[in-house]
Specification:
Layout (H helix, E strand, L loop, with lengths): L5 E3 L10 E2 L8 E5 L1 H6 L3 E4 L7 E3 L5 E4 L8 E3 L8 E3 L3 E4 L6 H9 L1 H7 L3 E2 L7 E2 L1 H4 L3 E3 L3 H40 L10 E4 L11 E2 L12 E4 L4 E2 L2 E2 L5 E3 L1 H5 L11 E4 L7 E3 L8 E2 L3 E4 L6 H9 L1 H10 L10 H5 L2 E4 L2 H41 L3
Helix pairs in contact: 2-5, 5-10
Length: 388
C-alpha cells in the first residue's frame, strides 16, 4: 500500500509571513527562532534593540526548515505565544498550511527520503556557505495522507524519537560519570592537588615493547589478514569492533613493533590528537596505523591512565604540545614525557573496576540505541511509503 495523495512543498510554504525590523521597537521583547536557539532547544527572548536585522514574522504551529549547513537536519515547530511577538531569522523556510499537521511535516522534513532530495537543492562553495534554495525545495513532493493518518504517524515517530533522545541523554551521563569518578578520587592530574608521585609515561611502559606508532600504508581492506585499529575506530575510551579493517600479513610483519596485546593503551597522535582506548581481547595480535601510538602500560592500570589522559587538565597539556598546521600532531618524544600521577595501585585498580562497570552499562545502552535507531528508520520508511 502507498499513499495516493502527495503535495509539492511549495503549496505548504507560508505565502504571507511578512517581515519586521525589531530595532524599531527597541524596548519590546521578541521570541526569536534562530539557528543558535534551535541548537539550545528554546527560542531566545530578545529586546528589539539587540536584533540587528529584519526578521520573518511567524505564527504558532508554523514549521521551520533550515536552509544553511543543510547536512545538519534542523526543523522546528513554532511554539505557543507567551505574550510576545514571534519572529524567525532568515535562515528558515517557513511552512504554514492547515492540510499538513505540524508534527507530521517536521518528521517528513528530517526524514531520510526528503533529506536525500533536499541535499540536491543545495548551492554554495562548502561548509557554512552551503544553502538550500527555497525555489528548488518548493518542487519537492512529499506524501500527504489524511490529517488523521498524519497525527497517528507523527505520534508513533515522535514516541520512538523520544525514546532515542532519552537513551542518548543516558549515554551522555555515563560518558561523564567515569571522568567525574576520576576527579573525585584523584583530582586534576596536572595540578595534582593530592601530591601523588609523578612519573613520565616512558617509565610506565614495558621496555621490551616501547612506545611506537604503527603501519604507514595498510593498503586495501583484506578478507583475511591482520586486523588494525584506526583513529576513527577509537570511541569513548573503547574500540568500535564493527569497523575494524584488515591488512596483509606481510605489511603487518613489517611493523611488528606495534603489534597489540590485550590491555595495551592506544592514543591518537595525529589529526584528532587525544583519543584513547584500551585494547580488548578480540584484538590480540592486531596492529595500528601511523596516526596512533601504542602504550604497553605495565607500571599502572591501563584504565586509570586512560582516564587520567582524558581529563580536561591533560587535554590542555596535550593541546600545548600539539604542533603542525595542515595536520596537527604530537611527537612521541612528548608522549614519553607525559607526567602521570601514581596513586596507590589498589586505588587505581578499584577505580578501574568502577570504570569497567560504567563501560559495560555504556555498551548496553549503545546497543539499545542502535536497535532504536534501526526501528525508527524502519518506521519512518514504512510511514512515508504508506504502510504504517
Amino acid at each position: 500500500m502507498s499513499y495516493r495523495s502527495s503535495i509539492a512543498l511549495g503549496d505548504l510554504m507560508a505565502k504571507k509571513s511578512g517581515s519586521i525590523d525589531p530595532s524599531k521597537f527597541s524596548d519590546e521583547i521578541f521570541d526569536l527562532y534562530s539557528i543558535p536557539a534551535f541548537d539550545k532547544g528554546v527560542p531566545e527572548a530578545v529586546a528589539g534593540r539587540a536584533i540587528g536585522s529584519a526578521k520573518q514574522v511567524v505564527e504558532p504551529s508554523d514549521v521551520l526548515l533550515s536552509k544553511i549547513v543543510p547536512h545538519i537536519r534542523r526543523s522546528w515547530i513554532v511554539g505557543k505565544k507567551n505574550g510576545r511577538r514571534i519572529i524567525a531569522s532568515g535562515e528558515w523556510i517557513v511552512f504554514r498550511n492547515e492540510r499538513a499537521h505540524p508534527d507530521y511535516l517536521r518528521q517528513v522534513l528530517v526524514g531520510d527520503p526528503f533529506h536525500a532530495q533536499f541535499m540536491n537543492t543545495v548551492a554554495g562553495v562548502g561548509g557554512s556557505l552551503l544553502r538550500a534554495r527555497p525555489a528548488h525545495v518548493a518542487k519537492i513532493t512529499i506524501p500527504l495522507p489524511s490529517l488523521e493518518k498524519q497525527r497517528r504517524i507523527a505520534a508513533i515517530l515522535d514516541q520512538t524519537e523520544a525514546l532515542r533522545a532519552k537513551r542518548r541523554r543516558a549515554l551522555a551521563k555515563l560518558d561523564a560519570l567515569t571522568q567525574a569518578l576520576f576527579l573525585d578520587l584523584f583530582g586534576d592530574p596536572i595540578k595534582n592537588p593530592r601530591g601523588f608521585t609523578v612519573r613520565p609515561m616512558i617509565e610506565l611502559v614495558d621496555p621490551q615493547r616501547p612506545i611506537s606508532y604503527g603501519i604507514l600504508m595498510p593498503g586495501p581492506d583484506q578478507v583475511e589478514g591482520v586486523k588494525y585499529v584506526r583513529v576513527v575506530d577509537m570511541k569513548n575510551g573503547g574500540i568500535e569492533l564493527s569497523g575494524i579493517r584488515k591488512t596483509t600479513d606481510a605489511i603487518s610483519n613489517s611493523f611488528r613493533r606495534s603489534l597489540l596485546k590485550p590491555g595495551d593503551l592506544l592514543m591518537s597522535i595525529r589529526g584528532h590528537v587525544g583519543r584513547f582506548a584500551v585494547v580488548p581481547h578480540e584484538l590480540d595480535g592486531a596492529n595500528i596505523t601511523q596516526d596512533t601510538a601504542r602504550l604497553a602500560i605495565v607500571g599502572a592500570s591501563s584504565v586509570f591512565v586512560r582516564e587520567c589522559l582524558r581529563t580536561e587538565g591533560f587535554q590542555r597539556w596535550m593541546a600545548k604540545h600539539t604542533k603542525g598546521v595542515a595536520v596537527r600532531g604530537i611527537n612521541l618524544g612528548d608522549v614519553k614525557l607525559m607526567p602521570i600521577i601514581l596513586p596507590p595501585r589498589a586505588d587505581q585498580d578499584k577505580f578501574a573496576r568502577q570504570a569497567d562497570a560504567v563501560d559495560t552499562l555504556r555498551i548496553a545502552h549503545r546497543a539499545s540505541l542502535a536497535k532504536l535507531d534501526a526501528l525508527f528508520a524502519t518506521l519512518q520508511h514504512r510511514a512515508f511509503r504508506g504502510d504504517l
